[in-house]
């Protein structure tokens, strides 16, 4: 008969297994182009969602949103890839709220507050208790500072709460004070921040980030997650938020 090459092997039939990644064998409906016109019920639902505005998760993942609070897509608590609460906000508005967030603050810190303006310090130090109004106080030793240009102690700002009213201007001169020679105690500062995390954290977030629902909801969700899980890395992140914004 016909001789076979020793290197040739009998070809085995290849069996391809399909997996949808689910243990129960159920197949998830693929997201693709719709075929044919919408039904009357679908058209009505789409119109309602358009008025209400789809949530951010459904926008990014190109899913069909619904009127629920939270919507059906945001309800599963085990969804690991989406930790942001169901938020119905225009994505363009997010950037709008962040523009110039610290303009007024930076305007004062970028003035002549530098070592070149300082002539010297008083040898006497006084203990001062500093608070941000949430029931806790931070002990800091302060001393008088002597400068060449005293205009750096002049602080001005405007406040406006009513749209039909002109902003009210404020002007005040601060005391000529600087932190003592030893600086701020790291342990005391850490304890001060800890008290805010274990206490009125959400109240601070509401006050400081007023008018920015996207940021306030993210930070509140992170804090509630920490309260539930007690993860040290989340606590460190929350302390950083406090330290940079208090």
UniProtKB/TrEMBL annotation:
Polar residues bias locations: 1-10
Record-annotated Zn(2)-C6 fungal-type domain positions: 53-92
Biased composition (Basic and acidic residues): 21-30
Keyword Nucleus set for record: yes
CDD domains the record matches: GAL4
Keywords annotated in UniProt: Nucleus
Superkingdom of the source species: Eukaryota
Keyword Nucleus: yes
Gene Ontology molecular-function annotations: DNA-binding transcription factor activity, RNA polymerase II-specific; zinc ion binding
One Pfam family it belongs to: Zn_clus
Disordered as annotated region, ranges: 1-45
Protein name: Zn(2)-C6 fungal-type domain-containing protein
Native species: Verticillium longisporum (Verticillium dahliae var. longisporum)
């Amino acid at each position: 008969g016909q001789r076979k090459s020793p290197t040739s092997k009998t070809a085995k039939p290849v069996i391809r297994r399909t997996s949808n990644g689910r243990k129960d064998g159920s197949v998830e409906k693929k997201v693709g182009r719709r075929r044919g016109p919408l039904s009357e019920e679908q058209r009505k639902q789409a119109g309602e969602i358009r008025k209400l505005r789809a949530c951010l998760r459904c926008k990014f993942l190109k899913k069909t949103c619904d009127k629920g609070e939270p919507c059906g897509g945001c309800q599963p608590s085990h969804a690991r890839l989406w930790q942001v609460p169901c938020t119905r906000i225009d994505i363009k508005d997010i950037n709008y709220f962040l523009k110039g967030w610290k303009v007024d603050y930076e305007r004062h810190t970028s003035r002549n507050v530098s070592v070149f303006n300082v002539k010297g310090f008083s040898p006497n130090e006084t203990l001062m208790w500093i608070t941000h109004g949430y029931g806790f106080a931070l002990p800091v030793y302060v001393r008088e500072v002597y400068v060449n240009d005293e205009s750096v102690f002049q602080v001005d700002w405007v406040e406006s709460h009513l749209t039909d009213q002109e902003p009210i201007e404020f002007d005040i001169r601060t005391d000529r004070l600087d932190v003592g020679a030893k600086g701020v105690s790291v342990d005391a500062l850490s304890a001060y921040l800890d008290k805010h995390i274990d206490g009125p954290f959400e109240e601070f977030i509401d006050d400081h980030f007023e008018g920015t629902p996207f940021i306030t909801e993210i930070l509140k969700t992170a804090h509630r997650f920490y309260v539930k899980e007690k993860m040290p890395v989340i606590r460190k992140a929350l302390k950083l938020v406090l330290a940079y914004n208090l």
